[in-house]
Design a protein that fits this description.
single chain
Amino acid sequence: MDLPGIYVSKKPSLGEKMSIMYSKGYYNFVYTPEENDTLTIEENGKFKYSSDFCKVGLKGYDGDWELRSDSLFLDFSYKTHNSRIFISQGNLLYTIEDFSLSGSNETMKCITLLEKR
């Protein structure tokens, strides 16, 4: 698997929604906006992750990565940031997490789908 490279968030297609989210029983969900997040995976086991937070602006994080089977583990250098696990599927990486809805105690599933450039 040729994992190192640059991955950018994308809007899931209907087929991707079906194969990733619907197959897991998630029918109501949100997704990370297109070109909002960028993950750069380096050959030396390091990564850089940036995300554009609507009211805060662009934030960047780094750390170490490890691949186990089809799961990419991101261990952030910033201990205030939890580790993230992405599933590798061809030229795509995705993670599904809980997203807190603004102004309520409710959560909804959120998929971050990254495509290799």
